[in-house]
Design goal:
Rossmann fold, binds phosphoric acid mono(formamide)ester, 301 residues, binds norvaline, alpha/beta, 2 domains
């Protein structure tokens, strides 16, 4: 593994290696065992979109590993004034040990990896959010002690989360049921990938059908960053695509609920379901830290 650009690039063995190291690093942090694997290393963090979890977990994670994080707002970088990503990649490769980038187009992240000579980590694009999915898989494994053979259900927009979760869960031996309104399906290359998994993958229109006997139920906002202008239209398109009591009654009685956050209560998830599953959701948020530390160690040590 040279970069973390999207789940499609990772093998089942690589995902397992990341999850195992994440568990170990979590144990070491909780038990005060030093794990300064990245002493003297620097991580540049480029943000073209807002962030709470990604920024704070990468910054803290890098510090805990003995390295130095640098927050680089695109407003301040020359990239925000049009300096090509090809040049930015080659310049930053001369200073830094790695780059985490949150941006719009997946191509920008792929270009950074192509033109630079240091590891690139995708901290969310319109297409993918692999860091979140690694934390999600880690959380499901913590609660269920396995991934293989579980049923995963996603309700809502076929967005960056749905794309990455579909690929990650299928690669880890889970079956995946999506409930998405027509016109809001995952990306074509994800659907093509999923086709090879036969009846382990389905897209349905009814959320209750998708949730039947699910071990983990997931949802995300109806309008992602960059889609604020479509928010009203999306509220109409997604009406009913909500994780609520009816959905949870269809899932297994011990099903967990996950949400990448930020959440919009009473839109994609009811307040009641959110609060009933808050422990799982905030464990998931915490696991961003551990999963990303594992990725940084594997890429930058
Ligand atoms: N889930 C997630 O990536 O959160 P932030 O947008 O706060 O980083
Ligand atoms: N789909 C959301 C995820 C946020 C973590 C977005 O892209 O805004």
């Amino acid at each position: 593994m040279k970069h973390l650009l999207k789940m499609l690039d990772l093998s089942t063995e690589e995902i397992t290696e990341i999850l195992n190291l994440a568990d170990q690093l979590k144990y070491e942090l909780k038990n005060g065992i030093p794990h300064k694997h990245l002493e003297g290393k620097t991580l540049g963090m480029i943000f073209q979109k807002s962030s709470t979890r990604t920024r704070v977990s990468f910054e803290t994670g890098m510090y805990q590993l003995g390295g130095q994080p640098l927050f680089l707002s695109s407003k301040d970088l020359q990239i925000g004034r049009g300096e090509p990503v090809q040049d930015t990649a080659r310049v930053l490769s001369r200073y830094l040990s790695g780059i985490m980038i949150r941006t719009f187009e997946q191509k920008e992240v792929e270009d950074l990896a192509e033109y630079g000579s240091i590891p690139i980590i995708n901290g969310l694009t319109d297409f993918a959010h692999p860091c979140q999915v690694l934390a999600d898989l880690m959380t499901i494994r913590e609660y269920k002690n396995k991934l293989d053979g579980l049923k995963f259900c996603f309700i809502g927009d076929g967005n960056n989360m749905a794309n990455s979760l579909t690929v990650g869960c299928l690669k880890m031996g889970m079956s995946v049921s999506l409930a998405c309104p027509e016109g809001y399906y995952p990306a074509a290359e994800v659907l093509e990938f999923a086709k090879a998994y036969g009846d382990r993958f389905e897209i349905v229109s009814d959320p209750v059908t998708a949730a039947k006997n699910a071990d983990a139920v997931y949802t995300d906002v109806w309008a992602s960053m960059g889609q604020e202008g479509e928010a009203e239209k999306r509220k109409i398109a997604f009406r009913g695509y909500q994780v609520n009591d009816a959905v949870m009654n269809a899932a297994k009685p011990d099903a967990i609920v996950l949400h990448c956050l930020p959440a919009h209560r009473e839109e994609e998830i009811t307040e009641k379901v959110f609060e009933a599953h808050a422990n799982e959701i905030f464990d998931e948020a915490e696991n961003r830290l551990h999963a990303q530390k594992a990725v940084m160690v594997l890429l930058m040590k």
